């Protein structure tokens, strides 16, 4: 336990590296290799070291270890997302592929170690079905990942430039420092137009809002958003706890969703004549990548398509409005 906690903290400490591709690659690869070894150890462990441990107990122990590994993978992915704005395209693609392979190894290990008998976790509400080991594993990891990500949800104002605590307004944000992050927090029934290109964007606690962003130089983190529409172009998009949200996006890597339901994706179409093209080209976001439809649901471990997101039907797609309140 102590060793696992030490490794988890080492991963979290990577959150603020120097902005060097070489430093990122060294830290990323060391952590990835350590996680891969941990997964191999779990897969090879037959639980026979302690003869007094019943088979059900051994499976539960393996699932506990998998929860710890899953938290480390989430932290490593967050580390990669936060570095995306300064990484060369090659390094970004390489790290994305490596993380995907690590996720696949994790899924295989979960399937191998899923308990074959009914058991309970600490919460009595979480019941398992002995005939559905994959479903059992999915529920077990989902409960841990939800707890891990919920612990980091916004409970106080994120420091730095931003727009916060507004309602029933049309907000135009033009003067932005491209070397700084920007934050949108606690907005209700607002239309927000971000006309500059911040280094990164964080959008937290939005309800019934329409967000239009020309470009983001790095990554976008979206959390706790309900009944809203978001238009943006960015290197990477990460979504947590979204409900009934439509995303019109262009990204350079696969969008990631977690703990989200009824979200839909369509291609980016927001355009300001005479401005958008130059901004998008400057940040390498002008060409359509098709990634808007290649969504990764980190809470869905099965090989079947996730039921939590869909491609927005063309008949449902709406063109971005001009500045002013949309209808």
**Percentage of residues in strands:** 25-35%
By secondary-structure content and strand pairing, the structural class works out as: alpha/beta
Overall morphology: globular
Structure annotation, total helices: 6
Q: Tell me about the largest β-sheet.
A: 11 strands, parallel
- What is the H/E string? HHHHHEEEEEEEEEHEE
Q: How many beta-strand elements?
A: 11
Radius of gyration (CA) equals 21 Å
User: Uncertain spans, ≥5 residues at pLDDT below 50?
Assistant: 11-18, 49-58, 116-157
Instruction: Please state the average pLDDT score.
Output: 78
Distance between the termini: 54 Å
Helix content: 25-40%
Q: Topology of this structure?
A:
Blueprint: H1 2-12, H2 21-44, H3 55-83, H4 89-113, H5 133-150, E1 162-167, E2 170-173, E3 181-188, E4 191-194, E5 200-207, E6 210-213, E7 216-251, E8 256-258, E9 261-267, H6 276-282, E10 296-297, E11 309-311
Parallel strand pairs: 1-3, 2-4, 3-5, 4-6, 5-7, 6-7, 7-8, 7-9, 8-10, 9-11
Helix pairs in contact: 1-3, 2-3, 2-4, 3-4, 3-5
Structure description:
With 327 residues, the protein is an alpha/beta fold. The chain is 35% helix and 26% strand. The protein contains six helices and eleven strands. Strands 1, 2, 3, 4, 5, 6, 7, 8, 9, 10 and 11 form an eleven-stranded parallel beta sheet that branches. The longest helix is centred in the first third of the chain and has 29 residues, at 55-83. It starts with a helix and ends in a 16-residue tail after the last strand. Residues 11-18, 49-58 and 116-157 have low confidence and may be disordered.
């Amino acid at each position: 336990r102590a060793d696992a906690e030490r490794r988890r903290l080492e991963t979290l400490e990577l959150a603020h590296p120097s902005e060097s591709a070489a430093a990122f690659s060294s830290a990323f690869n060391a952590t990835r290799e350590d996680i891969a070894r941990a997964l191999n150890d779990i897969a090879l462990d037959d639980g026979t070291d302690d003869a007094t441990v019943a088979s059900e107990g051994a499976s539960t122990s393996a699932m506990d270890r998998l929860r710890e590994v899953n938290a480390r993978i989430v932290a490593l992915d967050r580390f990669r997302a936060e570095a995306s704005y300064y990484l060369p395209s090659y390094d970004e693609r390489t790290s994305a592929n490596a993380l995907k392979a690590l996720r696949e190894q994790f899924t295989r290990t979960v399937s191998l170690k899923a308990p074959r008998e009914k058991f309970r976790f600490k919460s009595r509400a979480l019941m398992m079905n002995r005939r559905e080991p994959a479903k059992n594993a999915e529920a077990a990891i989902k409960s841990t990942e939800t707890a891990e990500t919920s612990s980091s949800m916004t409970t106080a104002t994120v420091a730095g430039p931003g727009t916060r605590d507004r309602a029933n307004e049309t907000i135009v944000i033009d003067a932005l420092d491209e070397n700084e992050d920007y934050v949108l927090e606690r907005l209700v029934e607002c239309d927000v137009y971000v006309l500059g290109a911040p280094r990164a964007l964080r959008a937290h606690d939005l309800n019934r809002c329409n967000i239009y962003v020309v470009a983001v130089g790095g990554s976008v983190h979206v959390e706790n958003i309900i009944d809203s529409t978001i238009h943006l172009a960015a290197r990477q998009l990460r979504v947590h706890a979204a409900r009934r949200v439509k995303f019109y996006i262009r990204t350079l890597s696969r969008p990631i969703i977690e703990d989200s339901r009824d979200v839909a994706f369509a291609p980016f179409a927001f355009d300001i004549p005479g401005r958008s093209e130059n901004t998008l080209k400057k940040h390498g976001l002008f060409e359509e990548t098709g990634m808007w439809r290649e969504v990764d649901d980190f809470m869905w471990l099965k090989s079947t398509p996730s039921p939590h997101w869909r491609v927005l039907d063309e008949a449902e797609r709406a063109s971005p409005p001009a500045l002013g309140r949309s209808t």
